[in-house]
Amino acid sequence: MSLFNWLRTKKPGLDSAQQKRLEQLRKPTALGDGSLRSQRWVVVDLETSGLNLNRDQVLSIGAVVIEDGAVDFSQLFERTLQRADTKLSPSVLIHGLGPSAIAAGSDPAEALLDFMEFVGDSPLLAFHAPFDQHMLCRALKDSLGYRLTHPFLDVADIAPLLCPDAQIREAGLDDWINHFNLHVGERHHASADALATAELMLILFSRARQQQIYTPHALQERLSQWKRRKHAPSF
């Protein structure tokens, strides 16, 4: 084996149909100057085998769509991924995905292709997005050889940005749900958590418009400025 071959990244073993679907995935678009209401947003939540960014795996993906100022219940996504030899952490007691559910799950490549076709060119939203983004990027690279470049905004940052009087900047999703008295049913399953995050985001979009933030690009810019101020050294 040559040194060049040894250094090359191993490509996932996709069949011809999967490779064709991969090549036909839509390219992401940058957040633009259309209205927040007209933008199609995909709100995603993952359940994983644990919290280790480099070792644990995505077990399930849940997503809902916000479009035209509302959750579009005709556009829902949920997949459990089949994982062999996955060691489950105590988090299985929370999300309820045991060995039998994982064994009956979808082929990871198929599930991830389904998800990216569902996303299309839309931006993504998640609560504590850096974790979901990292885990999703890893899964897509490992199973498809695909590099995720979609805009990915963190609702956990957007909430305190737009609601500074709430005084719960390090809050979890449940804290914000309680703050706004949202009536949420099931929790700690990927699709249910995505829906809860979407319901919160609808309130935050309304708050954004009240603060003269009218476009996805403006929201992204305001969020970037807020994060820079938050992490700036104080003298």
Automatic annotation (TrEMBL):
GO CC aspect terms: cytosol
Species the sequence originates in: Pseudomonas trivialis
Matching InterPro entries: Ribonucl_H, RNaseH-like_sf, RNaseH_sf
Pfam families in the cross-refs: RNase_T (PF00929)
Gene Ontology molecular function terms on file: 3'-5' exonuclease activity; nucleic acid binding
GO BP annotations listed: DNA metabolic process
UniProt xrefs under Gene3D superfamilies: Ribonuclease H-like superfamily/Ribonuclease H
Record domain Exonuclease: where: 40-210
Xref: SMART domains: EXOIII
Protein name per UniProt: DNA polymerase III subunit epsilon
Keywords assigned by UniProt, alphabetized: Exonuclease, Hydrolase, Nuclease
